[in-house]
Each structure stands twice: as C-alpha cells, then as structure tokens.
Amino acid sequence: MKKMHTVDIIAKKRDGMILSEKELTFLINAYTAGEIPDYQMAAWLMAVYQKGMTDEETAILTLAMAKSGDMIDLTSIPGIKVDKHSTGGVADTTTLVLAPLVAATGVPVAKMSGRGLGFTGGTIDKLESIPGLNATLTKEEFISNLLKHNLAITGQTADIAPADGKIYALRDVTATIESIPLIASSIMSKKIAAGADKILLDVKVGNGAFMKKMADALKLAETMVRIGELVGRQTIAAITNMDEPLGEAVGNSLEVREAIGILSGRGSHSLKDVCVTLGSYMLVLAGAACSPAVGKKLLRELLDSGKGLNKFREFIKVQGGNDEIVANPLLLPQAGIKLTLVSKHKGFINQINAAQVGFTAMRLGAGREYKEQQIDLAAGIIMHCRVGDYVEIDQPLATIYTNDGNKLENAISMLRQSIVLGSDSVPIPPLIYGIVDINGFHQEPV
C-alpha cells in the first residue's frame, strides 16, 4: 500500500483536485495525533480556503473530525433525539427557551453548548449565572438526565471532536476562518459527535452575525444541510435576522431572566416568535408534529399552560441549580450599577446595530475578548426599543448594567452610536428569512 505524504495532499488541494476519503481521514487523524506540524496543516487550510471543497469532501472531513474523539451514543434513549445549533448572535437567548419548551412535548433534546467569545454570548455562561447549576456533565450524567427528563445541556469537552479544536485555533491565526467548508465541518462535526439523530440549525445573517450577507448565510446553510444528509443526520436550517438584537436582554443573568419571562408568557415578541418557529421545526424533525403550523400551535399552548416553564425549573434542579430563581430572578447575579439611557431626540428608530450593542455588552464585562477572560455574569444591557418604534425625547432606549463604574462612559457612547433615529419610519425587517432543507431554500409560512 502506497504511503501517504502530507505534502502531496496539500499540493493536490492547492491544484484544485478532489481529495479521497483515505487522504482526508489520514490528514485529520495524523494532525490530531501530533504527527503533522501546524505549518503543513496551515498550508492545507489555505489551499481549502482558496480552492474550496465538494459536498462529499466536506462530509468526509466532517465525519473524520467527529470521529477524532468521543462519539456519544444515545441509542439507549427512546425516541428521536434532536439538537439545535445557532451560529451566534446578540441577545440570542433561544436555547434557554427552546430546549425546555421542546422537551416539554416529550421530545428528547440533547444539547452540547459552548462559552461566549467576542460579542456572541455562550449558552454555558448564561446557565452558569444560575447559582449552583452544573453545566459540565459527565457522559453518564448527560445520558441519564436525557433519559429521565428529556433534556440535558452540557459544555463541550475537549474529548468531543478534538480535531476541530486544534484546527479552529489554527484557522484563527492563519486568516482561514471565512471558508464555508471549514465553517460547516467545524459546526457539524461537533453536532454529529454529540449523538443527536436530527439537527436544527439557526443560521444568523446581518451585522451582528458571523455571516453578514444573505448569499453567504444561504451557502453555509445549504452546505450544512447537505453534510447532514450525506452522513445520515436529517438537518434543517433557518435563516434568521441579526441586524438588530433578537431579544431585549444582552448579558448572561439578564438573558436567563428574559427566558423565564418568555416561558411565563411575557417578554419580547421577537425572541418568542423565533423560538416558537425554530421549535416547530424541531418537532417536525422528531415526528412530534406533522407540520410547522401544528408544531407552533402545540408550543404556544405549552407557553400558555406554563409547562415549558415547569420543564425549565425541573432542568435547573436536576443539574444542581437553585430553581427558586424561576419565582425570584433577584437570586440571579445582580449588577451594582444600573443606568438608563434616554433619547435626546424624537423620531423613528431606523437602525439598531446588533454588533455594536454586543461589543458594548462585552466591554461592560458580559463577554470575552480572549478565551481565558473572566466575565461578569451580572453585566449587560436591556434594550427598550426596536427598529420601527417611535420614541419621544427622554424616552428610555436601554438600561446598562455593570459592576465597574469606569466602564460606563464608554458604554454610553457606544450604545448611543448603535441606535440611529430618523424622521421617517423604515420597513420592519422579517425575523426569519426562510428555511433550508434538502430541497433547497423556501419562505417560512406565516
């Protein structure tokens, strides 16, 4: 058998040729084992960035990365297990609402989540703002909670798709982040290793998302859906708007509080509507609803009845958290400084720059500028306006929460810059642009 050489694989991709399963598997396994140096993997990543990959190559790469570490086996759990992944945004509190809401229907929700980096908040950080909650489950605890309660959320361990962790760190310093095959394989390898049968993707697009342009978001969604199909995981992607913050709260304990409000039947209509829509497709994937319309009706009934909130309380208690926060959110971390920003002018809100709001929250302490940075779980922003609203002079626009008074002046300036007023109203953009499944892109039914 001919011995494989990394340089030949690099050259083949440099010349735009298609790599075989053996070549891609060798590359990933050898790099994970430390047998291929960073400089050679960096060269290969740049070749992929320049020449791209076929769907079949990307699927093979995804599976090789998934199999580079532990593959969680959820076959002992009855029913169709569903996972959901968001590509990241601002005030994107969907998991905290969606997971218990869908689990309350009897559908097992197996979720591995990450921590925040930059202005996109991490689900694990949000959950760890709940006193006592354990968001680092063992594999046995994860499976047990899923079996008994239809819901388990845990942080991703280093044993899940370790090849992705190594490759992502290298992409970050070699200008190869913005590659659709590399982004898609990174996301899907972790989802596949986590063991769910079906996958729902929330692909954000807009100034507060990784994908700024609709064409790029659509291409990423289509690539991940095809990967899912090629590796035997039915996958659906929703393309959702991230030109303004999705919910009202930006920050960890603040977002937990908002999730409790929505599960109690209150809160942001935009966040609630997106959660219900995403959840309806999770139910369709799981076979628990014959159509998204039926799924939406069921989920709204669970919100109205309080069963979604009860499942959230149950989840908190099972994972060691203080479930009294559901009745008394003041038990969550509280900021020592609270300041409300009011409008200096009257007019229509023409724009709220989601990225700028997210960066402001990060500078207040709610997010990380580097991986090891400690965050302030109480810090953040509550938005009191949305695009299309009419505001009067002195009307509240947002409330800033922090424990560091030295950060206030800069935060006020940044937040004011993110909110643009005009004399005329502007069209209100859709929350969800459409759905991508194996048959392509189509508009989401109203």
TrEMBL record:
Pfam families, sorted: Glycos_trans_3N (PF02885), Glycos_transf_3 (PF00591), PYNP_C (PF07831)
Record carries keyword Glycosyltransferase: yes
InterPro entries: Glycosyl_Trfase_fam3, Glycosyl_Trfase_fam3_N_dom, Glycosyl_Trfase_fam3_N_dom_sf, Nuc_phospho_transferase, PYNP-like_C_sf, PYNP_C, Pyrmidine_PPas_bac/euk, Pyrmidine_PPase_CS
Enzyme Commission number: 2.4.2.2
Gene Ontology CC annotations of this record: cytosol
Any one GO BP annotation for this protein: pyrimidine nucleobase metabolic process
Stretches assigned to the Pyrimidine nucleoside phosphorylase C-terminal domain: 348-422
UniProt enzyme class: transferase
Reaction(s) catalysed (UniProt annotation): thymidine + phosphate = 2-deoxy-alpha-D-ribose 1-phosphate + thymine; uridine + phosphate = alpha-D-ribose 1-phosphate + uracil; 2'-deoxyuridine + phosphate = 2-deoxy-alpha-D-ribose 1-phosphate + uracil
MF terms (GO), sorted A to Z: 1,4-alpha-oligoglucan phosphorylase activity; deoxyuridine phosphorylase activity; thymidine phosphorylase activity; uridine phosphorylase activity
Keywords: Glycosyltransferase, Transferase
SMART domains listed in its UniProt record: PYNP_C
Top-rank taxon: Bacteria
Alphabetical list of SUPFAM superfamilies matching this protein: Nucleoside phosphorylase/phosphoribosyltransferase catalytic domain (SSF52418), Nucleoside phosphorylase/phosphoribosyltransferase N-terminal domain (SSF47648), Pyrimidine nucleoside phosphorylase C-terminal domain (SSF54680)
UniProt cross-references to PANTHER family, sorted A to Z: THYMIDINE PHOSPHORYLASE
Function: Catalyzes phosphorolysis of the pyrimidine nucleosides uridine, thymidine and 2'-deoxyuridine with the formation of the corresponding pyrimidine base and ribose-1-phosphate.
Description of how the protein assembles with itself and partners: Homodimer.
Protein family according to the UniProt entry: Belongs to the thymidine/pyrimidine-nucleoside phosphorylase family.
Record protein name field: Pyrimidine-nucleoside phosphorylase
Biological source species: Methylomusa anaerophila
Encoding gene, per UniProt annotation: pdp
